[in-house]
């Protein structure tokens, strides 16, 4: 309950309700764990029973098993099977390529581009961001996270939004110096991205938004606004991005697809960079604030020795 700055322990509430109705504690716990599992992806996969049970409990606003935000340790809003991150905002496409001094590839006009990243370095709200010592130019990227609600294969844009569960905030932390080395290999980003993906603080279900293409977005660093805009001016629609992600493969509940960075939503476009200890806040209308603190560079990591030319 964001407006009350507290969270409800749904599993505990359901268990106690069942006990009052005559169930044993063991049986009620098993039932409550089935309806409210520890995995958000598993919960979303339950579909209507999960949502309906949560809404019934929330309607009663139980105080007995709620905790204020200040006492909560936040996990990532979802535990996706794979991270997908798109490139759809026209402003960022232009700004990014201008800073790297090369023209956008015409391929961006042919298909909705995205890359796949590891789900094992996903972090949540208030988490410290790991900073591998090989990174010198650290950046954030302000994005929406499209959370998938049901399994789908080879969807079409006209039915793709039926598979959208909700929206979260997605911060695609990026090493710009390593990205400049990796991308010319033409196999996609690896070490410049996979050290951390911020997802949180929670998921707002899609029915809570009046217009998915006019969601206000802002990023602040140490309290100073570095970028502000909204989710309009996309090269590809949300439905097209989801359909493309599912084409010839499978998307599953809890998967998160990054919208791509909002125009002006990265420090690269401002000729700025993050420093250790910086506090990065991403604010999205209808969702909330995802706040992370940059960690200290991790020293002593191995790095490959450059090879001699073979051509």
UniProtKB/TrEMBL annotation:
GO molecular function: catalytic activity
InterPro entries cross-referenced by the UniProt entry: Fumarylacetoacetase-like_C (IPR011234), Fumarylacetoacetase_C_sf (IPR036663)
Short name of any one Pfam family annotated for the protein: FAA_hydrolase
Residue span(s) of domain Fumarylacetoacetase-like C-terminal: 82-293
PANTHER family: BLL6422 PROTEIN, FUMARYLACETOACETATE HYDROLASE
Assigned protein family: Belongs to the hydratase/decarboxylase family.
UniProt-recorded name of the protein: 2-keto-4-pentenoate hydratase/2-oxohepta-3-ene-1,7-dioic acid hydratase (Catechol pathway)
């Amino acid at each position: 309950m964001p407006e009350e700055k507290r969270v409800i322990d749904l599993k505990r509430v359901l268990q106690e309700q069942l006990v009052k109705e005559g169930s044993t504690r063991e049986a009620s716990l098993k039932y409550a764990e089935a309806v409210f599992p520890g995995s958000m992806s598993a919960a979303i996969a339950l579909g209507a029973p999960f949502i309906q049970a949560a809404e019934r409990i929330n309607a009663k606003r139980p105080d007995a098993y709620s905790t204020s935000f200040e006492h909560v340790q936040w996990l990532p809003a979802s535990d996706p099977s794979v991270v997908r991150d798109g490139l759809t905002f026209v402003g960022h496409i232009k700004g990014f390529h201008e800073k790297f001094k090369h023209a956008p590839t015409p391929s961006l006009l042919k298909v909705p581009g995205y890359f796949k990243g590891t789900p094992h370095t996903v972090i949540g709200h208030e988490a410290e961001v790991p900073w591998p010592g090989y990174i010198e130019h650290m950046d954030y990227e302000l994005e929406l996270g499209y959370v998938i609600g049901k399994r789908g294969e080879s969807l079409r844009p006209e039915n793709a939004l039926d598979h959208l569960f909700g929206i979260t905030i997605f911060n695609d932390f990026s090493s710009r110096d390593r990205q400049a080395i990796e991308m010319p290999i033409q196999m996609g980003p690896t070490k410049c991205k996979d050290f951390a993906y911020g997802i949180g603080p929670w998921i707002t279900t899609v029915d809570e938004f009046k217009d998915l293409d006019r969601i206000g977005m802002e990023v602040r660093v140490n309290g100073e606004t570095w970028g502000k805009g909204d989710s309009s001016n996309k090269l590809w629609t949300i439905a097209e991005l989801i359909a493309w992600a599912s084409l010839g493969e499978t998307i599953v509940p809890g998967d998160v697809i990054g919208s791509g960075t909002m125009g002006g939503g990265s420090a690269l476009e401002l000729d700025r960079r993050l420093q250790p200890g910086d506090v990065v806040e991403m604010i999205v209308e209808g969702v909330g604030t995802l706040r992370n603190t940059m960690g200290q560079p991790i020293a002593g990591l191995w790095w490959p020795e450059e090879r001699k030319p073979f051509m």
